């Protein structure tokens, strides 16, 4: 039996993390770098990306920032081609970039719908398509999409995000079956409520909302970006070599729902 050394698991490998300037994306990028990998972080604003680069270098990895909006398919192609050509390989892609706000669906403007679907669904496809053109010829690659459990159970006020993330799950399963025999795995991770600025502002903007969210989690706590990154690292690497087309739910049991009866 061979036991994989996770401290050097991504040695010599190259990953791209979209939305890598903050929250879960930043934590996954740093986790990849900590295991010896080279990581590129993609996002719209340079400053937060540079901070992730600094943190990734601090743990001993190599890192670079790529300023690019995932909604721009041509820019995505150029950025990913450049990355793969500079390093001679692309081993992993994490589609983490997201946009979200809570709003009654009947008030959501077509442009608001489009903004979120463009980032989450279209952006994930543009990046995956561009990455696949380097992974498939190499016969090796791992794609991980960060989604949310409301992709299947739905949630009031999140119709754009839920529809887009549901689309991402269907995309992942389709590509997993299409590319499985060619060495490219495609999975999803569905974190529960995570202590990040982006999610907090969008989904629990005040103390009362935060308490309500917490009361829905059997584990009785929020998760952290580092904890999500640990699960992501598992799915990205060879420990998960036989897992594809799967969604790993890491939500402290939240989507199971809490019984509303008297608790024991
Ligand atoms: C209603 C809104 C709105 C709001 C924007 N819009 N915010 N409508 N309520 N709070 C509308 C605008 O009025 C506009 O429509 C349209 O959306 C586009 O807005 P822009 O600001 O021009 O777009 P843009 O600058 O591209 O910003 C995209 C964005 C923004 C999605 C709206 O929020 C964003 O970039 N967010 C990225 C960071 C983020 O949200 N991270 C959270 C991810 S957390 P009109 O018709 O007026 O032109 C997450 C966790 C989920 O996803 C899982 C939990 C378990």
Automatic annotation (TrEMBL):
The keyword Oxidoreductase applies. The keyword Iron-sulfur does not apply. Pfam families: adh_short_C2. It comes from the Bacteria. This is SDR family oxidoreductase. Keywords: NADP, Oxidoreductase. InterPro entries: DECR2-like, NAD(P)-bd_dom_sf, SDR_fam. SUPFAM superfamilies: NAD(P)-binding Rossmann-fold domains (SSF51735). It comes from Saxibacter everestensis.
């Amino acid at each position: 039996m061979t036991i994989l050394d996770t401290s050097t698991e991504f040695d010599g490998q190259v990953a791209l993390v979209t939305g890598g300037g903050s929250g879960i994306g930043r934590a996954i990028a740093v986790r990849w770098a900590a295991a010896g990998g080279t990581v590129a972080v993609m996002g719209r604003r340079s400053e937060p990306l540079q901070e992730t680069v600094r943190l990734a270098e601090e743990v001993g990895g190599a890192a670079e920032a790529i300023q690019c909006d995932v909604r721009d398919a041509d820019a995505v192609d150029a950025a990913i081609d450049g990355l793969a050509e500079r390093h001679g390989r692309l081993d992993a892609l994490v589609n983490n970039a997201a946009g979200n706000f809570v709003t009654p669906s009947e008030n959501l403007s077509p442009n608001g719908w489009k903004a979120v679907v463009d980032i989450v669904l279209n952006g994930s496809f543009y990046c995956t398509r561009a990455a696949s053109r380097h992974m498939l010829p190499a016969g090796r690659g791992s794609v991980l999409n960060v989604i949310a459990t409301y992709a299947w159970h739905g949630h009031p006020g999140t119709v754009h995000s839920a529809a887009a993330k549901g689309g991402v799950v269907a995309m992942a399963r389709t590509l997993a079956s299409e590319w499985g025999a060619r060495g490219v795995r495609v999975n999803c991770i569905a974190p529960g409520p995570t202590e990040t600025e982006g999610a907090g502002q969008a989904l629990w903007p005040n103390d009362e909302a935060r308490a309500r969210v917490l009361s829905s989690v059997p584990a009785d706590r929020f998760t952290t970006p580092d904890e999500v990154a640990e699960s992501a690292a598992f799915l990205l690497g060879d420990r998960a070599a036989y897992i594809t087309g799967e969604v790993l739910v890491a939500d402290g049991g939240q989507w199971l729902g809490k019984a509303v009866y008297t608790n024991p």
